Protein 1
Amino acid sequence: MSETLANLSSESRQFPPPEELAAAANVKAGAYEEAAADRLAFWATQADRLTWAKKWDQVLDWSNPPFAKWFVGGELNIAYNCVDRHVEAGRGDKVAIHWEGEPGDTRTITYAELLKLVSQAANTLTELGIAAGDRVAIYMPMIPEAAVAMLACARIGATHSVVFGGFSVDALSTRIKDADAKLVITADGGYRRGKPSALKPTVDEAVAKSPSIENVLVVRRTGQDVEWTDKDKWWHETVEQASPEHQAQPFDAEHPLFILYTSGTTGKPKGILHTTGGYLTQVSYTHNAVFDLKPETDVYWCTADIGWVTGHSYIVYGPLSNGATQVMYEGTPDTPGRDRFWQIVDKYKVSILYTAPTLIRTMMKWGDDIPAGYDLSSLRVLGSVGEPINPEAWMWYRENIGRNRTPIVDTWWQTETGGVMISPLPGVTATKPGSAMTPLPGITADVVDDQAESVPNGGGGFLVLRDPWPSMLRTIWGDDKRFLDTYWSRFGAGAGSGDEWIYFAGDGAKKDEDGALWLLGRVDDVMLVSGHNISTTEVESALVSHPSVAEAAVVGATDPTTGQAIVAFVIPRGSVDTEGDAGDQLNVELRNHVSKTLGPIAKPRQIMLVPELPKTRSGKIMRRLLKDVAENRSLGDVTTLQDSAVMELISKGMQTGK
Ligand code: 6R9
């Protein structure tokens, strides 16, 4: 990685925080010094933001690395922290969730109402035989009951495993089996792209293959006809009839809270295990710090799905533990029109928006005039997560959505890290378009070479995390060995300085001249062209910086002369003519543009103009599938793809040379 092209590109624009926001910010520059002086004391202070039934005896037990124990001996209840304590403090009438259904129906749920629902659901789960430590699968659309189901599990100490609504029968049944779940909570369906999309038939098939499942709890959302088995129970006939009284019991700080599966690039999905006290401490702190949340006045909206870790940490546990008022939206951004997001921001006066680069680039493609038609003056902080955000997309977000006023926080983290790790602080950091900037207070991230030596400013290499952090994964469910192999053996204990344990994140990164961090994508995606390591992210950003390009995905395809050659898949902006000669001309222009921006070595061998790119449901580009196309192979596993028709479109274009 030392030879990356990374340092050929440069970004000199910089945006200091707005003065007014900086003056009133929740977290100021001193937090970095405080954490640097005593990291564990810093995290103990953050844990004190929560309500504990029993205080911990020790902040961190790292005597058996890499198996961490945080807040040893402490006890708390997560649902109590997310719901009851706000009601007890007299904030029961405060709105917790402004829910917006795709067809336009709405629900407003206060903290007092949330407490009732969560208590009822907790009572029902108990009646269905679910006890602390049991696993519950949740396969739901984006409706309030999804959050209620998660909180009800947490309340009784059951471990939830949320599976994306829309994953296949196979994906659902392997996850049920791996966790040995006893219950599935689901719905008849949800609304997507203007119509009901069924969930129950998938659950029926998966449950038929899953002997561990004893009951299925079904929310009625769409009213579609459903098959009914003797394991099925309607939510409205059980939960909504149950007693609203439920006393939350405290659980050990290391009690398992949830399992969430990440597919990674190959192999069987990994069940990432998170526990109670450290997880809630970090997601609660980071939600407050990174978004500068003012619970009394802000309206927060995270557009993620609950089936992605972002939904867990920054729709459910972070915001609710902080007593936030938030928007939750069921559907797609283009239903009924491409202005739906801006209409929602305007309607609820959203002040903090957290979304993904894929959506920002899609909005760019749809055109500036769409957001321009809305009053977005309520916005004061914008966030990004999921992929590196290209500088051009960052600038578009700042100019067209933030109207050049609001800070952008580009937050780097993973399912495994549980909460945000690298991000600007909106009242402190002078941001650079495309950089996640620096590790948060209390976090030690670094970029190292293959000998685990820290690279100097200006250098590139592997992103690592040096010290344990509260919301770190505790293991891979049922597979400690894979946990060790995947994250801790690359720079094994003893590499670098002494017996330090170094967490390998799997991402490439560089440090710029000021030490700010730039994420370069998964190291598995790095291309090797004529002996040079080239990051997919940088070639993609070079392409996106051309005014005709909305989105780009780049892969390295085997090449007889250069080892690998760069093949790019490009989505043109809405207004661009790509028919016939115009398309050919654009192609030549784009190849030259990359060559000029990054150097001739980065010039793509081939550029395909495509209408869409294959993405996971959390919006990440699946380069692996594009590589299959570029190398003329049959496609690998497509089960985590958001829209499987996309690959047909792309493969067809490849054969006809378009
Ligand atoms: C939260 C989440 C983790 C991977 C991660 C990295 C990529 C996420 C990013 C980012 C650059 C950011 N990633 N945020 N890359 N800048 N701000 O996405 O979790 O689904 O587990 O994915 O996503 O490659 O390693 P998860």
Protein 2
Amino acid sequence: PAGRIFVLRDITLFKQAAQALQEAKEAAEAASQAKSAFLSMMSHELRTPLTAILGYSEFLREDLLNRDLHSLTSDLDRIITAGRHLLTLINDILDYARLEANAVTIHPEPVHMSTLINEVVMTLQGLAKQGQNTITVTVEPDLPPVLADPVRLRQVLLNLVGNACKFTGQGEIRVHCYRSTTAEIQIDVSDTGIGIAADQLQHLFKPFVQVDNGPTRRYGGTGLGLAICQRLCQVMGGAILVTSEPGRGSTFSVRLPITGVPSAPCEVSQEDG
Ligand code: ADP
């Protein structure tokens, strides 16, 4: 007798697999684009000081006999400044690359925040005085030692307090360390400087981002400092946040678990000002 056979096949799984494959492809493409963009930014950043070094050196060599001591010294100073910038840039790039590749190991030990913060402030007193800024430090009494990597934490604070000095002229910088929850401490670095526009805040922690990025840029730097700080805070199980108001100042806050890196990594978040 004649009959029909119906074959029903559930293709949901196939569809899900195809979709997952498509998403993986898109993620790989995005990662590859991000890598190319990073490499092209990096080459641009490296080329700028190197061009200055070569340009001034060649010019000096051709014109050496016509130079007096003053103009000679000022061109040599420019070469030294560009060389130093290049070295900082290379160190920052290496640091950032290691962090991105998860190749940075932290060495936690009990850190007395008062000692560490005062050391950082002492190191930056000269920079603060140059800009006629004052730095005040308050550390909550009886704060327990924090299990963190002192070298990396110092690097983060040097960058934040250094930025506060750089972007504040004749103002006040405050470093306040306190217990924000039973499990966390917070270090707020506040300044009364130029501030940052709300639409720029979300980009600050991306590599090579500098808010004032035009050819007449007044402030030196590599644009990698905050990207490095954010990743360092992450590997120490913490987070970094920023609030700011243009013309009034900024506060960068570092949050760290008192007992060191928790088993699940903390999310890094940002807040608008
Ligand atoms: P840079 O080496 O250029 O300072 P960072 O990553 O440390 O790089 O900072 C990125 C940018 O964020 C800076 O170029 C500046 O535009 C902005 N920024 C950082 N800190 C401050 C601050 N305290 N006040 C105002 N702007 C800041």
